[in-house]
Design a protein that fits this description.
Order of helices and strands: EHEEEEHEEEEHHHEEEEE
Largest sheet: 7 strands, mixed
């Protein structure tokens, strides 16, 4: 199992992974902290996290060690995380396209994957933010934590160690593409339900039909019929 290092505090576990790799000490590594001060989210967004309440975790691996096609890696990572979280309680865990994990209609986890050349080697740095013990989400109405959504109080260090072992075993597997997409669509958040979407500032009802092999989301819209969307082209309001 690759080594995993605890950091008392850091700006971003993603950046810490890159810094450690530049020193040449390890080829595959993971870092985590309970105090991330400038976490990264998708598309330049930030991931805000309360101190000693949540987990920020990043796993760095040479790209040639991953046997999943690059367009599928984000979704396969979501499946691994979904499977881990599903073992923690009896509540269903859903995958909100493209990179969030949902329990009882609240986002408890997000994924960020960056591809970087480090010492002339292409790397994937897989970042996961997981809300565990935080209870105050007054400024984040769509967010929750394992505690708020399941009522279970988990020990942070034990959870990281369990997740690192689980993730390290699964991430190197060679999983057929159809299996990945079947898994995504099986637990896709609000699939086949009427939802409200916003597209270029205009709202209308629609029904999520599926995610295809290229990662596009297909939605049957009330006014525009069946259309497919890439990241940030459509927003679900829930």
């Amino acid at each position: 199992m690759p080594p995993v290092s605890y950091l008392d505090e850091c700006a971003s576990t993603q950046d810490e992974c890159a810094r450690i790799l530049l020193s040449g000490d390890s080829e595959i590594l993971a870092v985590y902290t309970f105090n991330q001060t400038n976490g990264k989210g998708q598309y330049g967004n930030s991931w805000k996290s309360s101190v000693n309440r949540n987990i920020a975790y990043s796993f760095a691996v040479p790209a040639n060690r991953i046997r999943i096609p690059t367009p599928s890696l984000n979704f396969y990572t979501a499946i691994i995380l979904r499977d881990f979280l599903a073992n923690l309680s009896t509540f269903p865990v859903k995958i909100k396209w493209p990179n969030d994990l949902i329990i009882r209609n609240k986002k408890i986890s997000g994924i960020l994957i960056e591809k970087k050349n480090i010492n002339e080697i292409p790397y994937f740095i897989i970042g996961i933010g997981l809300n565990v013990l935080q209870e105050d989400f007054r400024h984040l109405p769509k967010a929750g934590s394992l505690l708020t959504q399941t009522g279970i109080r988990f020990e942070l260090k034990e959870m990281v160690e369990r997740f690192h072992e689980f993730f390290s075993e699964r991430i190197f597997q060679n999983v057929p593409g159809p299996e990945i997409w079947n898994n995504i669509n099986k637990d896709l958040f609000r699939k086949d339900e009427v939802s409200v979407f916003e597209i270029k500032g205009i709202r209308q009802n629609g029904i999520i039909k599926n995610v295809d092999e290229e990662g596009f989301l297909w939605v049957e819209l009330e006014n525009d019929g069946l259309r497919r969307f890439f990241h940030k082209e459509i927003e679900m309001l829930y």
